[in-house]
Amino acid sequence: MEHYYYLFLDIFSISFPLAASFEKRVHYWRKWPGLFTGIGVMALVFLVWDAIFTANGVWGFNPRYTLGPRFLHLPIEEWLFFLAVPYSCMFLYEVMRYYVRRDVFGPYARTFSIGLIVLLLSVGLLTWGRIYTNVTFFCTALFLAYHVFIAKSPWLGRFYVGYAVSLIPFFLVNGILTGWLLPEPIVWYNNEENLGIRLNTIPIEDSMYLLFFLLIVTTFYERALKRSHGDLPAVEA
Fold this sequence. Notes:
By secondary structure, the protein is mostly helical. Helices cover 62% and strands 6% of the residues. The chain has seven helices and six strands. The chain has a two-stranded antiparallel ribbon. Strands 2-3 form a two-stranded antiparallel sheet. Strands 5-6 form a two-stranded antiparallel sheet. Strand 2 and strand 3 form a beta hairpin. Helix 2 packs antiparallel against helix 7, helix 4 crosses helix 6 and helix 5 packs parallel to helix 7. The longest helix has 24 residues.
């Protein structure tokens, strides 16, 4: 039964958002074209990244909790992770956009983003040689800078609210993946390649890893929708 643990986590992550995709208020299923384009682009980037890091011992997967088949050093459950997690997180993003009509963080998104960019670049430079930290922080900072200074994306405030909400289930699922409630982690990390700072059992870099891959998905998701942003009209009763 232990061999199914990672698969169970993937299924658990996507089950409710998938079942609720046809709900008549959010209409998540109608947004699938942009969603799956974003997931496809993100997965292309992150699966290559994942395979290289796995091959070089930056992290790895415990065969005790996986089914066995691997492709490019990655268990099939890891491939499914890059479908289940962004699908579920973007569902939360869309739900928050529908029910929180005010763009509450919009006025602060640019300032917050610039501060985050400076912080990520500074920590990345000061910890040069820790490959997970460096790649994650630099890539996140550069892509965020693109959205702030070049694209001037109007949905960043909404994105941060959705991201903050997504951290709750992400930390639950990722906590189990990294060893919380289990005798051994499903995914192990080489602490020589990260800061060694854990949020419970989760490397702090994982929070920026999530932000980066959701930012990629959201870029294509919102581009396809071409909708207005800012405060929205109240929902009719």
